[in-house]
Amino acid sequence: MAEKRAREEETAAPDLREVAGTAMDVENAKKEAASKPSGPDAKRRMIAATPEVIKRQIEYYLSDKNLSQDHFFWNSINDNKMAGSYLPMEKIFACNKIKMMKRADGSGMGITTEDVKEAIANSDFVEFGKSDNMEAVEGIRRKDPTGKGALPKLEAGPKIAKGVEESKEAKGKANEAKFHAMGVVFMVADVPETHGWTDVKKTLKDKLFADAQSGKMASKSYIDFCSTKTAEGEVFMSASSFAGDLKYFEEDMEKTKVDFYKFSPEKAEKLYPEGTADRELKLRGKQAGPEGKEVDLALTTENADLWQGTVKIVRCDHVLGKDADGLNVTSMAKAMELMPQFVKEKRIRNQKKSKQAQNVAITVANVRIGSMMELKKKVREIQGNYGNYEEIRKNGTDYNLIRELMVKWHPTGEAKLKGELGIMVGPSKYQGTRCFYVILERDAAGKPKGNGETDGEGKQPIPDQWHTDFSMTKIYQAMEAGGAFQRPS
Q: What is the distance between the alpha carbons of residues 77 and 139, in angstroms, rounded to a whole number?
């Protein structure tokens, strides 16, 4: 252990002889090495924080130009509107520019709240203070926040529209699609006190069975999860996956009222007087079935309480209310919270089995491929077997496979193959990846033309007139859209 630690320390320590060179002794080299920043700050350019530099940076943060585009700062100030419209110091000190600032006294220490306070003391635009609430949080605000200092209009600039709102919404929709791909998750709200979660589940279970029998659904489905009724009168459920399940719930469930019946012993007492056949059974909501087995009694308004409710698919943007912290609670988030972990795991397993059952192997250039994952693995193997700008042996297995994929599934495959002399592997324009190229011209030696020259920086030129690349991603997308690996229905 001691030897290992010594080796590690030797490796981690800077080479003092290298630092010292011939004009500096080892002692001076030690001082120089110690003065250099290390860790995360090593790559960060330090800024000498004079009062003017600090003032200029703070005034920029609260300027119209920045706040009209800065979603985070704008909301932080706006949320503090009732407490003086201050931007808290902790959020200012979280900025990289502020972290890079070091005190001008040469100590190497970062700036403090006092440094900021002194720097902006003579500013005509911003001022230091404490929020007008119990927390009394220190911060900076624009002077006269109710007049000239009022916040500018928040524009839908790239930081907001693309960087925050759109990406957040897109991510939520993607998660929602994955959630329902394992089987639609839905809810029934405003369930009255007369009805319990078992009544809701039974009604929808019977409806799913009846719709499967009538042909409304592509196949049978069962309820694989049902929550108890929440304090808000909500019941969350999920149904096992079947073809076209989301469309069925959107068109046949959400757009119509569902009759939820709850057996009423009081109504049954009046409906089935003394002497009625199987009265004891009927008072319990049962009747004699085949082979003497008890089955549920058909429920009507005569023997049960009727409530008409609506089924809603849970969504990432369907807000049910606020939590204790004042944040929105969506129906999808609540459903995921109520669903036990073992149910989530079961849904994932069932989805994998379903996909495997639907998959069918295809043959491309006499190569049997069982799934998209298997195809991608095969393509990566081919790319790994050849060097940069190395040509794939013509009419070999690899060549025939890639060429047939292009012809059958690439949107412009035939056009790219016009005048083709071969196919080779090379570095992609996207750093760290490799791709295929169609060879269009050869040199006198018969090699793909243009491979022996560089652009002056050591990079290989890839002019379209000599060879052109093509996207395997486009091929994969076309295969998925066309259901290449799906069993015909």
A: 10
pLDDT on residue 238? 95
Residue 85 has pLDDT above 90, yes or no: no
Q: Is the pLDDT of residue 7 over 60?
A: no
What span, in angstroms and rounded, lies between the C-alpha atoms of 274 and 281? 13
* CATH no. for 362-481: 3.10.450.40
Residue type, 118: E
294 vs 147, more confident: 294
pLDDT digits (tens, 9 = 90+) for 122-156: 998 899 988 776 567 889 998 875 554 578 887 75
HEC states along the chain? CHHHHHHHHHHHCCCHHHHHCCCCCHHHHHHHHHHCCCHHHHHCCCEEECHHHHHHHHHHHCCHHHHCCCHHHHHHHHHCHHHCCCEEHHHHCCCHHHHHEEECCCCCCECCHHHHHHHCCCCCCEEEEECCCCCCCEEEEECCCCCCCCCCCCCCCHHHHHHHHHHHHHHHHHHHHHHHHCCCEEEECCCCCCCCHHHHHHHHHHHHHHHHHHCCCCCCCCEEEECCCCCCCCEEEEECCCCCHHHHHHHHHCCCCEEEEEECHHHHHHHCCCCCCCHHHHCCCEEECHHHCEEECCCCCCCEEEEEECEEECCCCCEEEECCCCCEEEHHHHHHHHCCHHHHHHHHHHHHHHHHHHECCEEECCEEECCHHHHHHHHHHHHHCCCCCEECCCCCHHHHHHHHHHHHHCCCHHHHCCCCCEEEEEECCCCCCEEEEEECCECCCCCECCCCCCCCCCCCCCCCCCEEEECHHHHHHHHHHCCCCECCC
Residue bearing tokens 């998750």: 185
pLDDT at 168: 61
In whole angstroms, give the CA distance from residue 403 to residue 385: 17
Domain ranges of the chain: 2-28, 47-142, 176-264+303-350, 269-302, 362-481
Intrachain domains 47-142 and 362-481 with the same fold:
no
CATH number for the domain running over 176-264+303-350? 3.30.70.330
Longest dimension (CA), the chain: 117
Residue pLDDT, tens place only, 189-232: 999 999 999 999 999 999 999 999 998 888 899 999 999 999 99
339-349: average pLDDT: 88
C-alpha distance from residue 337 to each of 3, 227, 240, 255, 349 (Å): 51, 11, 19, 26, 19
* CATH (residue range 47-142): 1.10.10.10
